């Protein structure tokens, strides 16, 4: 079920031209290294054969690089535009990757008419079955640099996201520096009775627990907590105009104390600046964008 949901997610890692060039160049480099190091498909014997001069060997590797460059350039910058392959799902891009391997196969076949194969077995290459056997090998060569490019782009995006959020946090904290000492948070219970009053700058986060909320705050440099009988959504309604935002269905944080955005085991957290150790509050994807917008205002 999780695999199906992942396949339905939007795939936009190779939408930017810079990311596409990264994929193309990394594929060319990977293909050359793969052939030179492992020398598969009988390539080792053909390289060592005295019947193949150095020029033919150079032209062979050059033709592999050139055909890879032409095929992926056509795929990424021409055919993707023609077939509107932009902002599609992961599932559809997997299909496109299969099509991309077919483009590479056809370009490699065309290149063999220009640059002779080291084994001088051109008639063998004209065989349909030979070409079909080459398809999974070309697909394998594409998969590794493809995954590497996606992971690299994902990491760079995360680093940019963390940097942007940190800059927003500093701006936000400076904005509230002069007012946070004056604002007072009055929390009412479900009967509209005052349960807790404290300066906004002392509040760290609020945690929901069924019919109750646990208010975590700092007083006299000591972490404390207070239980209020009320639901989180009703408590948040009492914080309008204050730097307190929901980050998860069970948590709300005081953005004044946000130190940084962290990722652990594929999950996102807001690290709150507390002593001696930071407190990590979970952030759901549905609330992350709202928190960014709040920090940016």
UniProtKB/TrEMBL annotation:
Reply yes or no: does the keyword Ribosomal protein apply.
Answer: no
Could you tell me one molecular function GO term of this UniProt entry? Answer: DNA binding
Q: Which SMART domains match?
A: LytTR
Membrane spanning residue stretches: 21-42, 54-72, 93-115, 135-155
Lineage, top-rank taxon, reads Bacteria
Keywords on record: Membrane, Transmembrane, Transmembrane helix
InterPro entries tied to this protein: LytTR_DNA-bd_dom (IPR007492)
HTH LytTR-type domain location: 248-297
Tell whether Protein transport is among the UniProt keywords. Answer: no
Q: What is this protein called?
A: HTH LytTR-type domain-containing protein
Whose protein is this, by species?
Mangrovimonas yunxiaonensis
* Upper classification of the organism: Bacteria, Pseudomonadati, Bacteroidota, Flavobacteriia, Flavobacteriales
